[in-house]
Amino acid sequence: FLSKLQGLTVRLEGKKTVEVLRDDSRSPLVHLVTDEKLAEFWVAHSDVSGPENIQEPKREDVESRRVSVALPLTSDAGSGGQVFAFLPTTESSGLPFIINADFVLSTSRERIQYDRRWNHWLRDCVATTFVEAFERLLQQPEHRLRGYCYIPLAEDVPEAFFRPVVDVIHHTLT
Hey, which residues does 19 pair with through a beta bridge? Predict the structure, then answer.
């Protein structure tokens, strides 16, 4: 999701150096490569106009925000359910894909503040972004069958905050 970041090298004392390279030359297909693994994601973004009826401190002048989803296409990609607010949070949506949006977080930057209307608005944008990604993925013969595993099931989403995403996806796809 950090679109400007093309690579990252981590060196831990006494341990192997890990280098992660991002290849988005075949966007929306994005590869993250380490010396041992290839993780492949189908990534979609929606730029959404800011809500006029929601006033959120520190976001008063925001005119639009980007909501992204990433569907992990390889088993090494994993990470389904992770929630990012530019950086990873400790949240798990229970959805079979990754979400990135400008959620208002707790002061520790670990948890979404569920009571904020701003966060409800961003959450409500996730379903549309997912459906667009899903429909584009189905147009790719090599990923068409796998695409259906990303349709979330309500019973797999334990966090009530994210359940409306499931309902909107199901309604939109029927």
Answer: 9
Residue with tokens 């002048």: 61
Pick the closest to residue 126 from 86, 98, 91, 156 (CA basis): 98
Model confidence pLDDT, tens digit, residues 119-138: 999 999 999 999 999 999 99
* Category of 18 on φ-ψ map: left (φ > 0), alpha (ψ -120 to 50) or beta: beta
Q: Report the half-sphere exposure of 100 (CA within 13 A, side-chain side).
A: 17
Task: Please give the DSSP secondary-structure letter assigned to residue 154.
Answer: G
Residue 74's nearest CA partner among 114, 34, 113, 103 is 34
Predicted TM-score (pTM) of this structure: 0.83
- Whether a cis peptide bond, with omega within 30° of 0, leads into 28 is yes
CA 159 to chain centre: 16
